[in-house]
Amino acid sequence: MTRASDIAYQAAAVICLHSSASSPRQWAALAQTLGAVYRVAAPELIDYGEACGWHYERPLTLEDEAQRIEPLIESEPDGVHLVGHSYGGAVALELALRNPGRVRSVALYEPVLFSLLNDGTAERPGRSTVKTEIDEVRFAIRRSLHAGRAAFAARLFVEYWSGPGAWESLDARRQAAITARMRKVDAEFDAVNFGMASLTDYRAVRVPVLLLVGGSTRRPARRIAELLGSVLPGSTRECVRNAGHMGPISHATEVNARIAAFLDAQSGYDHLARAA
What we know:
By secondary structure, this protein is α/β, with parallel strands linked by helices. Helix content is 47%, strand content 13%. A 6-stranded parallel sheet has the order 2-1-3-4-5-6, sandwiched between helices. Helix 10 (219-231) links the parallel strand 5 (209-214) and strand 6 (235-240). Helix 5 (130-146) runs antiparallel to helix 6 (150-162), helix 5 (130-146) runs antiparallel to helix 9 (182-193) and helix 6 (150-162) crosses helix 8. The longest helix has 17 residues, at 130-146.
């Protein structure tokens, strides 16, 4: 027999935001894991779909991305849970800042808020700058694009995050799709490098936050998670062993299980019992 409390829980809305050069399809397995008790929406970010072109007349901002997603949030009177990976995680935090009272929780896998690394105090003493590391990648990608070498830019991007040989492991269709998105990826680097929110601004996100980090990820992603974990009042940081930055894809089963458990905990619901 269905309880009234179960019916209310089934109405919970989850918005999943994909990473750079990816698509909403990356969340298909998570939607299946969450099952029928959640209503999962996975919208395309700007310029990832035919109906949302970006004209590149000015620098892209996280605010631009958030404004496109906010009608989905506003349509949910009981609020939403946000899930985001990489660039999608940065957009999710922007949405949480802009929509207090409407966002119920946030689950993040390595949000790439590189702007948090701009302050030298974000560095640990005695270590080379993690900001320099990601800037070198960003500028190499931009130079390649300006030289008309979009496929080489795509290769640089993929192999920075996934390691040597990752580009060759992709089939021709996937390589072409990523190459076609590199101009937007370049714009996304600007959006997360020059964000207006400071580290302390994120103290205002007073909802439960899950921060997932891959055990084999890059230093900038790891450092950003450390910084956010130090200021987000309701955050829990977890490591996914052996996973890198693309953990939601390469280690989808484990990552999705952790996200599902986190979401269920917000309503006191046992996901494993529900799935049985």
